[in-house]
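Students often ask what a holo structure prediction actually looks like on paper. The answer is less mysterious than it sounds. You provide the chain, you provide the ligand, and the output is a string of discrete structure tokens encoding the 3D arrangement of the protein together with nicotinamide-adenine-dinucleotide.
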Amino acid sequence: MTLQIIDGKALANQIKEELKLEVEHWVENGGKRPHLAAVLVGDDPASQAYVRNKVKSCEQVGFQSTLLKYEADMAEDDLLDIVKGLNENPEIDGYIVQLPLPKHIDENKILLAIDYRKDVDGFHPVNFGRMAQGLDSYLPATPMGILTMLDRYNIETSGKDVVVLGRSNIVGTPISILLSRKAKVGNATVTLTHSRTSDLEGHLKRADIIVAAIGIPLFVKKEMVKQGAVIIDVGINRVTSPDTKSGYKLVGDVDYDHVAPNCSHITPVPGGVGPMTVVSLLQNTMKAAKETIYNKP
Ligand code: NAD
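The corresponding structure tokens follow.
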């Protein structure tokens, strides 16, 4: 068995090229250039980097983009007004509010205020509910990126035992729903594990596919993984490192160096799930511009 590294960066670049052609074709035929807006509140360095990346990716595929930046102490009501304005602005096809928000702002209140027809992050309960029922919807970007990776790398999921580590609303819970749906990439038997799971190691050892999304550096060790398993590492953890100029580096939730030799496929960090998340957001925005799922508000 040879190990195959799932190159999320290369795949994301390939999909961006495909999207660029799709945009050109759409605009040449009279379509409106897709326009994504991103709202960033505060100065969290990771959030700033994610949003910068999203805006840059829009440029690469020929989308218009708008970045709206606000101070960390902005009032919740003011953010709700911004959201209302974006809902009503016919120029904007889709938008995201970068999470996490400052503590004094109720994230759920903001996410509920986003018009589900512009919710290209797929976090609104209408999109989440439709996803759970197998109806067409904007899928949350990270789980959608994982499905695309499994699909393009021809990794069989039907009948497989999948163990998902972590039950967040943006990764663990939706990917567990998606992989158990009756769909081309789906039909798996999924176990959703979390901080209260007993015998986590026992579950992991039985898994054909592991999706790790807990945010603990190098948590999944070699002895927890079955020979030949497929590993999708969602974690992005900043750890100190004497080897880099900045003094830190990014690692996943999986102890890559020791786990990889026993796997059939594995995603690296960085360069795995991260770039696929951004590309999925672009794909959702393209669908919004084309009104593939919903008519415009
Ligand atoms: P989160 O941080 O909101 O929640 C962590 C989850 O892990 C919880 O459900 C908790 O029950 C579970 N957990 C914590 N400790 C555990 C333990 N010891 N055993 C079992 N389960 C445990 O989750 P999140 O927002 O999905 O983020 C997870 C990681 O993924 C983070 O590192 C984050 O930065 C990263 N992330 C990456 C992307 C990407 O595009 N690659 C996107 C989103 C999140």
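The first helix runs from residue 8 to 28.
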